[in-house]
Q: What sequence folds into this?
């Protein structure tokens, strides 16, 4: 048995760049930075902060969401797998690259963070959930009030 699973929480390093392939299939690319904080070992050695950059690729509906809402600095949750690529550069050197193929992406941060990064007229509440998004609790049925009609409850909100 083997597992190829990646979970990242970090900030987008640039705006998502989207292109459309045959049959109007969208693919978006953007980078995500994850940072480990600096710390001091018990012997007094200081370990500096370390930032790692990840290339993220999203397809179809997630790519269209990324195009609208993933802007430089946006905090994102990415879930997917690692895929390596090999190519030869113009000087004949063999090069390697690693991409995160995301199958789940969620925008994080405060509402004001995401709404300011949304396109004009958009609101963070309008971001459609990805098809493979983590399950959310069911919304409560608000059709039946807590207090009978004409009476108010004593709740402060």
A:
């Amino acid at each position: 048995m083997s597992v190829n699973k990646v979970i990242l929480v970090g900030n987008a390093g640039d705006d998502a760049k989207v292109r459309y392939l045959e049959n109007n299939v969208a693919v978006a690319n953007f980078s995500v930075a994850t940072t480990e904080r600096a710390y001091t070992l018990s012997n007094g050695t200081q370990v500096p902060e370390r930032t790692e950059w990840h290339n993220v690729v999203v397809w179809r509906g997630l790519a269209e969401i990324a195009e609208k809402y993933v802007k430089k600095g946006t905090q994102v949750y990415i879930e997917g797998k690692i895929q390596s690529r090999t190519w030869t550069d113009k000087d004949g050197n063999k090069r390697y690259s690693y991409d995160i193929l995301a199958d789940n992406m969620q925008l994080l941060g405060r509402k004001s963070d995401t709404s300011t990064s949304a396109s004009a007229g958009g609101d963070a509440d309008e971001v459609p959930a990805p098809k493979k998004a983590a399950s959310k609790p069911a919304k409560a049925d608000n059709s039946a009030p807590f207090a009978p009609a004409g009476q108010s409850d004593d709740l402060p909100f």
In short: Confidence is low (pLDDT under 50) at residues 114-149.
